[in-house]
């Protein structure tokens, strides 16, 4: 029996893609599913806004820091086996987070969820790549993957609003467990195991534990330190400084590793490096947008969790539509990032007494369209020219940069919002001022990423034209 589903069997391939993308949807959903529920969680557990951000960051840091490990596991032990193990771990974390016993178990459960996502997501992307031949079939599969990933992040706020209003905040984690378990049961029957790639090191490979520990500790210190509100005090600056030192030490550690997390051959791939650098910037904007927008709607505009979730539908629709378009049309990266920057700048000017139709709908559509148009080409850029041998680690790396970027962006912009209020009373006016500053900062990051993307595109086109000019 063939290890691959027959390429000509569209129905079988569609079923496999559905299972893989459903799991990725669940991963993306949990990057934002807590956002609308944060005010309810904060009131129930008596948490500050900075503490609330750690309910988001616990997931993002575990996800981002362990993604290279997840990608390596997929390459060493098989993508289907790794995918199933990650899905099981994700389900365990979801169950733990759904037990409303306190902040410690909630944050710990979120971290376990993130670890599970770090294992299953690159394995799922590796399966998509290995089961889709290069060309239109793979482009369509990546378009579906991008649309589902984007829609998951947007749908999280809607699901969060519905469940928080109707049942309680704990239900947003219970639904993840209820969804993950059936998907796990479908894996052995529906998802084929790809044949080992030529040159696979599965027999002799081993995990780079020193590298994994170094990157995890470095990111935790960096993100936690940047998330502190008073950057003027030296003790606050020591934490991110220590994190940066550990991340700088990662390079010599990886050079001495027999089986590094990121093989050096991948770092010589210019497309991969550019795609990951740009995805880091996009992640900083992406996660922060879905953090601050629901808070603004509930704490400043007075929306209920249900209304805050429902009003995300236009943004979600724009994300899904533009992601599908980006999977079929070339050249959407720079326009998408410019639309994203324009939407965030517009959103940063929403007044305290703003209305959805006149003040939120327009920027929401721009943001959703921009995210979708940018995400798909960046994902493709991050895996361009990568052989099947390294598909897992490449898939893990592109997801790592988005999640790490999200954690960094959320920590920085949360601190910006807190600094902007100057410790004032948390009234709608002071909160609005802080949120506006954070959204304006996100717009600046999006504009910077658009400029970097334009430079990379121009250089790539010039490099492609050089041989023709020489002839």
From TrEMBL:
CDD domains: MFS_MMR_MDR_like
Keyword flag Transmembrane helix: yes
Sequence ranges assigned to domain Major facilitator superfamily (MFS) profile in this UniProt record: 16-461
InterPro entries assigned: MFS (IPR011701), MFS_dom (IPR020846), MFS_trans_sf (IPR036259)
Stored PROSITE patterns: MFS
Cellular component GO terms held in the UniProt record: plasma membrane
Protein name per UniProt: MFS transporter
Organism listed in the record: Peterkaempfera bronchialis
């Amino acid at each position: 029996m063939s290890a691959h589903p027959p390429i000509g069997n569209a129905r079988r391939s569609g079923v496999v893609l559905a299972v893989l993308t459903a799991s990725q949807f669940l991963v993306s959903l949990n990057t934002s599913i807590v956002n609308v529920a944060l005010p309810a969680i904060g009131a129930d557990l008596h948490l500050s806004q900075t503490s609330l951000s750690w309910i988001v960051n616990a997931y993002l840091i575990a996800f981002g820091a362990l993604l290279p490990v997840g990608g390596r596991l997929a390459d060493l032990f098989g993508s289907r086996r790794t995918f199933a193990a990650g899905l099981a771990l994700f389900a365990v974390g979801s169950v733990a987070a759904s037990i409303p016993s306190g902040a410690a178990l909630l944050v710990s459960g979120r971290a376990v969820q993130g670890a599970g996502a770090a294992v299953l997501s690159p394995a799922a992307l590796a399966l998509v790549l290995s089961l889709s031949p290069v060309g239109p079939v793979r482009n369509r599969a990546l378009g579906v993957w991008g649309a589902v990933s984007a829609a998951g992040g947007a749908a999280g706020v809607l699901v969060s609003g519905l469940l928080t209003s109707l049942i309680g905040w704990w239900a947003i984690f219970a639904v993840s467990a209820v969804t993950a378990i059936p998907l796990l049961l479908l894996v052995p029957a529906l998802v084929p195991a790809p044949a080992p790639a030529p040159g696979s090191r599965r027999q002799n490979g081993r995990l780079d534990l020193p590298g994994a520990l170094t990157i995890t500790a470095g990111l935790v210190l960096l993100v936690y330190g940047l998330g502190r509100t008073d950057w003027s005090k030296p003790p606050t600056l020591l934490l991110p400084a220590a994190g940066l030192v550990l991340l700088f030490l990662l390079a010599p550690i990886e050079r001495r590793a027999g089986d590094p997390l990121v093989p050096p051959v991948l770092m010589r791939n210019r497309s991969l490096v550019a795609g990951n650098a740009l995805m880091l910037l996009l992640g900083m904007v992406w996660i922060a947008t879905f953090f601050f927008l629901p808070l603004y709607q509930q704490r400043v505009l007075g929306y209920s969790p249900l209304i805050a979730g429902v009003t995300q539908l236009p943004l979600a629709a724009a994300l899904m539509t533009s992601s599908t378009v980006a999977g079929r049309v070339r050249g959407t990266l720079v326009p998408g990032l410019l639309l994203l920057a324009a939407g965030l700048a517009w959103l940063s000017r929403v007044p305290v007494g703003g209305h959805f139709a006149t003040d939120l709908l327009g920027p929401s559509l721009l943001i959703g369209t921009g995210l979708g148009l940018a995400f798909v080409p960046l994902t493709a850029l991050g895996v361009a020219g990568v052989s099947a041998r390294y598909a897992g680690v490449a898939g893990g790396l592109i997801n790592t940069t988005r999640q790490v970027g999200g954690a960094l962006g959320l920590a920085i912009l949360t601190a910006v919002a807190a600094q902007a209020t100057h410790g004032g009373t948390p009234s709608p006016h002071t909160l609005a001022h802080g949120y506006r500053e954070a959204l304006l900062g996100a717009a600046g990051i999006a504009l910077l990423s658009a400029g970097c993307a334009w430079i990379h595109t121009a250089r790539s086109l010039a490099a492609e034209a050089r041989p023709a000019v020489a002839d």
